[in-house]
TrEMBL record:
Organism field: Ziziphus jujuba (Chinese jujube)
Protein name according to UniProt: Probable beta-D-xylosidase 5
Signal peptide location: 1-22
GO MF, any single term: xylan 1,4-beta-xylosidase activity
UniProtKB keywords: Glycosidase, Hydrolase, Signal
Record InterPro entries: BXL, Fn3-like, GH, Glyco_hydro_3_C, Glyco_hydro_3_C_sf, Glyco_hydro_3_N, Glyco_hydro_3_N_sf, Ig-like_fold
Length: 802
């Protein structure tokens, strides 16, 4: 395809451009090189031959809205359109500098966007685990804490002229299909978990302490600006000839409300994010960046975004060359995107075509003004114009600080999931292990551990590094294959050598799994198996090793390791995601019991055959009976799995006791509030008043509380993730099997008890989204299930009546 050669490993094409144009002259990047930290600085204006007092946009006594309008009104049309791409050109005539909008901070400050770079002054930044592993901690305060540290490093690098203020992270697409190549970037398959991750990470990045009570959210200060992406129904990159630049996701309004939009809604409403990025794909025939309902209607209208909407990089070009949307030319596509509500183009289409579009009468210049004002207000909130004294003192020492690197280690430990532990083989007693055989393509993993959208890590501790650093241990290392694809192992020679290395070792650790050569942006999987001869390697080593065999899997998506689960020679299995720069150390800490693992799988691990039962292009979450497609995710898939969503063991045992729970909600509807119809599997389940729309209920007045006592009945201190699920009343057709409605990670000392109290909003926890897309609270007896491993249940009776 002609389009394809112009594109686009999301953002890679532009990265290359930026390297050739922007980076040779870092002076254009920020203001700091001129030894001034913000635009509205009189000496800076003087150098430009201007008098600052004449520029109302620099008058800090005025509201941002007024100042932004003044700034925009000073520009000519030609100047305006040059500010609407990621590489905004600035207008020297009026004192406005250039600004590069594109920086990334998915799990640490990254140099993927051209707004940020590393060099001798700042050689690296803290590289936290990839998001899928951090998500597995199910620890909201950790998610926020990481955001805070990342934004501190970003702000420090901004002060040093090495980074921007606007970060296009996090990626909050729900993992609908296990083949998706970008699972590593996301918090998994549950929309509520994804939404809470988004809210906490965004607040960590954006919030400025001490300004929590700002009532005018359009002027709320920002530490850095975050961006929730990719909006929406985007989780297909390239699968069997279908790619995201051409893919039209056919999505029902039911799935849209219940699954695809939910994390974005939480990100905007609860996280108060300052930007949303629209995606490459179309949804129901319309490219997302050109859809006025999705952008203006929902993000701005219904959710009330305080900030700007940006396109994925070159999305408008994708509309023209990929989707061939309405046969548009450049001007037409840009006009439709602007009219739909797209404020900033990552790319050059806006700059190249918006002036012509105005002159041709396709759009109003006023629409350009409106978008520019959204953009400048965000920059004002960041202190780009006035500076921000809170962050002025941040510098080199705040990047890769001891505290930040320690949190990267803590995050990896918290996320690691113990999948199997026969005979309590783990933790190993360090005094009884003298020789350790490290085997497998990830035994010395380095860059694999930091995944994609990474920066340069401060330093990286591979598994091999961490095990060899132990005192007085004999450590051997054999790859077993030449790389993760494991297609070339020298006719079994490498496997044979690996087997030999385990014959005398007290313990064997096998490091296997996937990496970016298997699952990545622009690369979806076609199967759920370990690549190449990895399975052979594992089986052969398991058959010959002298000591216990511990299998350590690095991956984002699930792999069908049923063979290993069932192999009695493999005593223990750990899933470690891609664990970040301290990954090796975190694994050592878990293996020897310095840390008791408590992570839980944020995605279902399906059996390999699952992907033969449905194409990746089918967007429905519910089973499609006419086509024999099974459901997707734990909410709708009722078949057997390798490991279910939420699975994870501990070195100790927990028991739950229900302390108290709301048993009944009796809600009297006013005369004008109507009972809604519900589809029942059998008329015998029918309720008098089957349901009521959640938007007409007083949800706050009907909070449901559930309190459980979590008792550590085992021998070791431990961390337990308490998961609370709801089940809809019996007999309602087409609803979820169960859905997560709350969770809390708690530390409980051996022998101790910790009470955990949940306050549940019935409209968000016990609602169902019907096939008509009505969001209702149904009458009847709802189930409440607490825990995966130690499940207890209770019920909530909802009685709606007039
Ligand atoms: C949650 O994460 C924080 C770090 O932000 C950590 O201090 C705390 O111990 C964690 N909680 C549990 C129960 O692991
Ligand atoms: C914000 O408001 C809360 C509740 O009124 C108050 O306790 C808190 O101190 C306020 N914070 C700031 C920074 O003013
Ligand atoms: C481990 O990886 C590092 C970084 O790639 C490399 O320098 C080192 O030689 C590797 N060690 C072994 C034993 O392969
Ligand atoms: C799972 O769902 C399918 C499709 O709705 C249904 O045909 C099947 O009976 C269900 N299986 C179980 C074990 O409930």
């Amino acid at each position: 395809m002609a389009g394809c050669k112009m594109m686009f490993v999301c953002c890679l094409l532009l990265t290359l451009l930026a390297m050739s144009h922007g980076r040779e002259n870092p002076k254009v990047l920020t203001l700091s090189d001129d030894d001034v930290s913000h635009v509205c600085n009189p000496s800076r204006f003087m150098k430009l031959g201007l008098e600052m007092s004449k520029f109302v946009y620099c008058d800090s006594s005025l509201p941002y809205e007024v100042r932004a309008k003044d700034l925009v009104d000073r520009m000519t049309l030609a100047e305006k359109v040059q500010q609407m791409g990621n590489n905004a050109q600035g207008v020297a005539r009026i004192g406005l500098p250039k600004y590069e909008w594109w920086s990334e901070a998915l799990h640490g400050v990254s140099n993927v966007g051209p707004g940020t770079y590393f060099d001798d002054v700042v050689p690296g930044a803290t590289s936290f685990p990839t998001v899928i592993l951090t998500a597995a901690s199910f620890n909201k305060s950790l998610w926020r804490n990481i955001g805070e540290f990342v934004s501190t490093e970003a702000r420090a690098m901004y002060n040093l002229g090495r980074a921007g203020l606007t970060y296009w992270s996090p990626n909050i697409n729900v993992v609908r299909d296990p083949r998706w190549g970008r699972i590593l970037e996301t918090p998994g398959e549950d929309p509520y978990v994804v939404g809470l991750y988004a809210t906490n990470y965004v607040r960590g990045l954006q919030d400025v302490k001490g300004t929590e009570n700002t009532t005018d959210l359009s002027s709320r200060p920002l530490k850095v600006a975050s961006c929730c992406k990719h909006y929406t129904a985007y989780d297909l990159d390239a699968w069997r000839g279908v790619d995201r630049y051409h893919f039209n996701a056919k999505v029902t309004e039911q799935d849209m409300t219940e699954t695809f939009l939910r994390p974005f809604e939480m990100c905007v409403k609860d996280g108060d994010v300052s930007s949303v990025m629209c995606s490459y794909n179309s949804v129901n025939g319309i490219p997302t960046c050109a859809d006025p309902n999705l952008l203006k209607g929902i993000i701005r209208g219904k959710w009330n975004l305080h900030g700007y909407i940006v396109s994925d990089c070159d999305s408008i070009e994708v509309m023209v060359d990929g989707h061939k949307w309405l046969g548009d030319n450049k001007e037409q596509a840009s006009s439709q995107a602007l009219t739909a509500g797209l404020d900033l183009d990552c790319g050059s289409y806006y700059g190249d075509s918006l002036q012509g579009a105005v002159l041709d009468g396709l759009i109003k210049e006023k629409d350009i003004d409106r978008s520019l004002k959204y953009l400048y207000i965000v920059l004002m909130r960041l202190g780009f114009f006035d500076g921000n004294p809170t962050f002025r003192s941040l510098g080199k020492d705040d990047v890769c600080s001891v505290e930040h690197v320690e949190l990267a280690l803590e995050a990896a430990r918290e996320g690691i999931v113990l999948l199997k532990n026969d005979g309590d083989t783990l933790p190993l007693n360090i005094n009884k292990v003298n020789s350790i055989a490290i085997v497998g393509p990830h035994g010395n993993a380095t860059s694999a551990m930091i995944g994609n959208y990474a920066g340069v890590p401060c330093k990286i501790v591979s598994p091999l590094d961490a095990f060899t650093a132990l005192n007085n241990k004999k450590v051997t290392f054999e790859m077993g294959c030449s790389n993760v694809l494991c297609a070339d192992n020298n006719n079994g020679g490498l496997i044979f050598t690996a087997m030999q290395s385990t014959k005398d070792a007290d313990v064997t650790l096998l490091f296997v799994g996937l990496d970016l050569s298997v699952e990545a942006e622009s690369l979806d999987r076609t199967d759920l198996l370990l690549p190449g001869d990895q399975t052979d390697l594992i089986n052969q080593v398991a058959a010959t090793a002298k000591g216990p065999v511990i299998l350590v899997i690095m991956s984002a998506g699930g792999v069908d390791i049923t063979f290993a689960k069932n192999n009695p020679n493999i005593k223990s299995i750990l899933w470690v995601g891609y664990p970040g720069e301290q990954g090796g150390q975190a694994i050592v800490d878990v293996v020897f019991g310095n840390y008791n693992p408590g992570g839980r799988l944020p995605v279902t691990w399906y059996e390999a055959d699952y992907v033969n039962q449905l194409p990746m292009t089918s967007m429905q979450l519910r089973p499609v009976e006419s086509l024999n497609y099974p459901g997707r995710t734990y909410r709708f898939f009722n078949g057997s799995t390798v490991y279910p969503f939420g699975y994870g063991l501990s070195y100790t045992k927990f028991a739950y006791k229900l302390v108290s729970s709301t048993q009944k909600l009796d809600i009297k509807l006013a005369n004008h509030q109507h009972c809604r119809v519900v589809n029942y599997l059998d008329p015998k389940f029918k309720q008098d008043c089957p349901a009521a729309g959640v938007d007409q209920l007083d949800c706050d007045a009907n909070t449901v509380t559930v309190e459980v006592a979590v008792q550590n009945v085992g021998p070791k201190d431990g961390n337990e993730v308490v998961l609370v699920y709801a089940k809809a009343p019996q007999g309602i057709a087409g609803t979820y099997i169960k859905q997560l409605i709350a969770f809390e990670r708690v530390f409980v000392a051996a022998g101790g008890t910790q009470n955990v109290k949940f306050e549940l909003d019935p409209c968000k926890c016990f609602n169902i989204v019907q096939d008509t897309a009505y969001n209702v609270l149904p009458s009847g007896i709802h189930g409440i299930e607490i825990g995966n491993n130690a499940a207890i249940t209770t019920t909530l009776q909802v009685n709606l009546h007039h």
